[in-house]
Each structure stands twice: as structure tokens, then as C-alpha cells.
Amino acid sequence: MSQFNQENLSHAAELLRALAHPLRLKIIKFIDKNEVINVNKIYNTLKLEQSITSQHLRILRNVGLVSTKREGKFIFYTLNYDRMEEVIGTINDFTDE
């Protein structure tokens, strides 16, 4: 078996753990559908508690899957598609070996 980048694989595993929750997947799909979305719109539309939504968004932000932009008192979320592609590439590299 050839060498694989353990650091990249660890990052990919961390991201997969973040994605392993159905509610986080639902939030990701909602952000993807809207491209840029205010956090209030996320929890109001998905009928979630604000605190629960914030916890899940923090996890997604910590692994680099979502990015934020503050405009006054509002926080807007977008998906980090480059990060997703990076992780998918790492997993593909690992499974091809």
C-alpha cells in the first residue's frame, strides 16, 4: 500500500463526523439552496430553536464547511465549496489506494 497523507485524511474524517448529523445535513442543504442566508432565516424556516441552530452552525464553521459574514447585527452563512472538494478528493485518494 502506498503512502497517504495522514493529516488530510484526519481533516476529512473530522469533516465527515460533522456531516454525520441529519440536522446539519438539512442546514447544509438549505444554505446550498439559498447560496447566502441569514441565520435567522435558517432557524425560522427550518423551525429550529435558535440555540440548536447556532450549535450546529458552529460545528460546521469549525471544520471550515461554512463561512460567515457579519453585516451589522446580522450574520450570513455560505458554504465553502472548496473545502468540500478538498475533502472529497482526499477520501477518493484514500479509497483508490
What would you note in describing this structure?
- The chain has 97 residues and is of the alpha+beta class.
- The protein has a single domain, classed as Orthogonal Bundle (Arc Repressor Mutant, subunit A).
- Helix content is 65%, strand content 14%.
- The chain has a 3-stranded antiparallel sheet.
- Helix 1 packs across helix 5.
- The chain is elongated and about 45 Å long.
- The N and C termini lie close together (7 Å).
Task: Note the topology.
Blueprint: H1 6-19, H2 22-34, E1 37-38, H3 39-45, H4 50-62, E2 66-71, E3 74-79, H5 81-96
Helix pairs in contact: 1-5
CATH topology grouping = Arc Repressor Mutant, subunit A
Number of helices: 5
Helix content: 55-70%
Order the strands across the largest sheet as they lie in space: 1-3-2
CATH architecture: Orthogonal Bundle
* The top level CATH class name: Mainly Alpha
What would a concise description of this structure say?
The protein has 97 residues and is of the alpha+beta class. It contains five helices and three strands, in the order H-H-E-H-H-E-E-H. It has a single domain, classed as Arc Repressor Mutant, subunit A, CATH 1.10.10.
Features:
alpha+beta; three-stranded antiparallel beta sheet; 65% helix; Arc Repressor Mutant, subunit A; single chain; 97 residues
